[in-house]
Design a protein that fits this description.
Layout lengths: L2 E5 L4 H10 L5 E5 L3 H11 L6 H5 L4 E4 L3 H11 L8 E4 L3 H4 L10 E7 L11 H5 L9 E9 L4 H12 L3 E6 L2 H34 L3 H19 L9 H14 L10 H11 L1
Parallel strand pairs: 1-2, 1-3, 3-4, 4-5, 6-7
Antiparallel strand pairs: 5-6
């Protein structure tokens, strides 16, 4: 039986992971330094925590379910005492990409991150439709990177990823650099920013036109659904001439000509430095 040490088990993400790992055949030792986190883990899962030294002793896999800003500090404290061949799992590419992991050649670093359930899916249960984050009932994809370590360790890392993010529909293998392009580049710098603008636009439409918030929200979300389905090839279709003309004149009003600079590596690096 593979022993997994879960550090940060009482945090928001840690509790999610602990809940899913409890359904597997992994032997999990839970570590949480804060008393409030320990209480939360116990209240929500019934699981107890153990001292960190006990959890790390004999662990083949160590999961760092801690914020990006402290991953470097936590890794610096634990990596030197791990047995050779131990796999350290990090849940985001930011700290690994920024070079915050200690150098040690006989340790495996595996990075994994959820895609989250897609907007267009086949969920047919209330629980699945309500699971927007993933890891509960809705199927999602995951991205994985074997940052360093023997090739045969990839399968173990992928098993862990599929366990903590279950149910998983697809698993994609990428590099840490590619994962950094996906997040923060694609998902946060671009997608989150544009969606924040759309929410601001909804409020502006309500303020300027006098239509109700409910009316504007129904109108916007419905158009997001069909316009997105066409743009992302979920269905065959084409925009009307009027819509295409609105896009032609709307994009220059909303977007800088050089907006794709956000995908240049100096911009990705600067974004990750701010995050970490």
């Amino acid at each position: 039986m593979t022993k997994v040490a879960l550090l940060g088990a009482g945090g928001k993400m840690g509790v999610r992971l602990a809940t899913n790992l409890a359904r597997t055949d992994f032997h999990v030792a839970h570590v949480e330094l804060s008393t409030s986190g320990q209480a939360r883990l116990k209240a929500e899962t019934g699981l107890d925590c153990v001292p960190q030294d006990n959890a790390l002793d004999g662990a083949q896999v160590v999961i760092l379910a801690v914020p990006d800003t402290v991953i470097g500090k936590v890794a610096a404290a634990i990596v030197p005492v791990l047995a050779p061949g131990t796999m350290v799992v990090i849940l985001d590419a930011a700290a690994p990409f920024a070079g915050h992991l200690p150098e040690r050649d006989d340790i495996t670093y595996f990075v994994t991150h959820p895609c989250h359930p897609p907007i267009w899916n086949d969920e047919d249960t209330p629980e699945g439709r309500a699971d927007h984050f993933g890891g509960v009932a809705a199927k999602q994809g995951v991205v994985n990177a074997l940052m360093q370590g023997p090739e045969e360790h990839y399968n173990l890392g992928e098993r862990v990823a599929k366990a903590i993010y279950a149910p998983v529909a697809r698993s994609h293998r990428v590099t840490v650099k590619q994962m950094a392009m996906l997040e923060p580049g694609l998902s946060e710098t671009v997608c989150a920013s544009l969606m924040a603008v759309m929410r601001e636009a909804l409020d502006e439409c309500v303020a300027r036109s006098g239509v109700s918030h409910e009316c504007a929200r129904d109108f916007l979300l419905g158009h997001m659904n069909i316009l997105g389905a066409v743009l992302f090839n979920e269905r065959d279709g084409a925009f009307s001439d009027a819509c295409n003309k609105a896009i032609e004149f709307g994009k220059p009003m909303l977007m800088r000509d050089d907006w794709k600079r956000v995908f240049e590596w100096d911009e990705i690096t600067a974004s990750i430095e701010r995050i970490t």
